[in-house]
Amino acid sequence: MRKSFAVITAFLALSLAGCGYNTFQRNDELIKSSWSEVLNQYQRRADLIPNLVNTVKGFAAQEKDVLLGVTDARARVGGIQATPELINDPEAFKKFQAAQGELSGALSRLLVVSENYPQLKSDANFRDLQAQLEGTENRITVARNRYIKAVQEYNVTVRSFPSNLTAMMFGYKTKPNFTVENEKEVSKPPRVDFAPAPAKR
Question: Under CATH, which architecture does the 20-186 domain have?
Answer without folding.
Answer: Up-down Bundle (1.20)
